[in-house]
Structures are given as C-alpha cells and as structure tokens.
Amino acid sequence: MINSFLFANFLSLRLWYALPLVVAISLVYAATRHELMVPILQHAWRMAVGIVGFMSIVFVILFLLEWKFL
Amino acid sequence: MTADKGAASTFESVEVNLKDRFIATVIAWVLPGAGHFYQGRHGKAILFMTCILGLFIFGMTTGGGKVVYASLNTEGRKLAMICQAGVGALVFPAWLQMVHVEILHKQEPLLQGFMAPPRNFNPSSRDELAEWHYDFHFKYEVGTLFTMIAGLLNILAVYDAAYGPVFVTPHSTKMEPSSDNDWLQEV
Questions:
Q1: Do B12 and A39 touch (CB under 8 A)?
Q2: How do residues B6-51 score in pLDDT, each as one tens digit?
Q3: Which of B15, B17, B41, B51 to mutate to test the interface with A (most CBs of A within 10 A)?
Q4: Residue A39 and residue B9: Cβ atoms within 8 Å?
Q5: Chain B within 8 Å of A23 (Cβ-Cβ)?
Q6: Quick one: closest CA in A to B9, which residue?
Q7: Among A19, B63, B182, B183, which one is most buried in terms of CB atoms within 10 A?
C-alpha cells in the first residue's frame, strides 16, 4: 500500500476544488480571445487540457520527490 | 495557399457591435455578463455570467459566507478585497458594512452581519477572524481564492465588453488572410 501524502490529498478530494477553477478560467479566457462559440469551446478545451497536464506533471514530480526522499 | 483547417478555426471574421463602450464597461463591471447582454452578445454574456457568478457563489458558500468583507483593520485581507472588487455590485454590501461598522462605529452590522468585517480584531489572541479559519479550515481559504479569481476573471470580461475579443491571429506560415475577409469592424 502506498503511503503518500500526495495521494492522500488526491483521494481526500481537496484537489478536486481545482476542477471548477480550471473550467471557469479556461472558458473565460477563451471567450476573451474569440467571438463565436465553437472556437471558444475549442480553445477552452485545449487550455483546460494544458492546465491539467501541467498540474499532473507537477504532481508526478512532487510524488517522486516524496517517495524518494521521505 | 490552402488554408490549414486547424488554423482556420482560430481565424474568424466577425462583426462585433460594441455600442456605447462606456455604458457596456460599467454594466459589465457591475454585473458580470450584463455588459455583453447590453451589446447583444448573448452567448458570451451567458458564459461570463455563469462562470464568474458561479465561481463567486461557490466560493461564498464554501467559505460559509465569511470570505468577502472589507476592513480597514485586517492587514492580511486587503489584497483579497482588491481582487474581489472586480465582481462589482456583488461586493457592495461589504463596502457598506465597512462604512457602517468601522467608519461610523456602529455597534451592530447591517444585513444580519452579511459580508461584515470581523470584530474584536486582535492578532495576539483568538478573534473572530481566527474563529472563521478554525470553523471552516481549508475551505475558508478555498472560498477566498474562488471569489478572488471570480473578480479577476470579471476584469477580463470587462475588457472584452470595452474593446471586443483579442482575436487569435493565424501563424504567418500556415495561412494568409483573404483580402475579402473583414476584420473586426466597429459600427
């Protein structure tokens, strides 16, 4: 069983508070870049994927650091 | 040159009627999305209103309704109100409470304490602000964060109402704009 503070945070649902933030920020930012709804949604999707991907990379790095040094 | 299909979706020629920019800007700040309704841009109005108001209301409920207030006494909270003020009229009760309690020195706040600043402020002991943090734990900070981001996002929406969207331009090597395309036109 993995004893990881990061996984505990993940499973304790605290990180899920980031989901509405990611959605709202992506939609609003994309809406300031386009006028039509389809490009807005396309841009918002790409931005949301990028944000979640970046957060995932940081999560993996922190998890490896915790696993290695703690 | 054949237009790249992926790039074409980001290059759009639309006509945006901004109407009276000053009125649209003020209305957009007062109520998120209202400026775009005034301009007839209903889709974006609904999007801004849903996202920004949704974030703000979610933050308020997560933080127990205590995360938005204005105070002349609490040092660490001034930055939060600077961001939250971007939401406009939704934080007017906080300013009203600050004037009523801290400037006019009234004993009891208005509106049953809604958006009232914490009382008995004492950094060296447990005051009302410390009780809020104790009662709501991390949710108090999450609620504060959500309301701050809602305010900052509304700044973007206000800019969009004032000047229109900042269109993504196609990469010069992928696509050349057609001479028949109309760029943003102001009526």
A1: yes
A2: 334 445 567 778 888 999 999 999 999 999 999 999 999 999 999 9
A3: B51
A4: yes
A5: yes
A6: A39
A7: B63
Q: How confident is the model over B46-97, as pLDDT tens digits?
A: 999 999 999 999 999 999 999 999 888 766 566 788 999 999 999 999 999 9
Report CB contact under 8 Å: B164, A33: no
Residues with Cβ within 8 Å of residue B138, at least 6 apart in sequence: A14
Which residues on chain B are in Cβ contact (under 8 Å) with A34?
10, 12, 165, 167-168
Q: Match 């993995």 to its residue by tokens.
A: A2
Q: What is the rounded CA–CA span in Å between residue B143 and residue A53?
A: 24
pTM for this model (two decimals): 0.80
**DSSP code at position A14:** S
> DSSP string of B4-57?
PHHHHTT---------SHHHHHHHHHHSTTHHHHHTT-HHHHHHHIIIIIHHHH
The residue to which tokens 């009302």 are assigned: B128
Sign of the dihedral through C-alpha B109, B112, B118, B120: positive
Helices B138-163 and B54-62, interaxial angle, to 10°?
A: 160
**Model ipTM value:** 0.81
CA-closest candidate to residue B11, choices B167, B163, B160: B167
Cα–Cα distance measured from residue A36 to residue B58, given in angstroms and rounded to the nearest whole number? 27
* Residue-range domain boundaries for chain A: 16-69
- B residues 50-89 closer than 8 Å to A (CB): 51-52, 54-55, 58, 62
Dihedral (CA of A41, A46, A51, A57) sign: positive
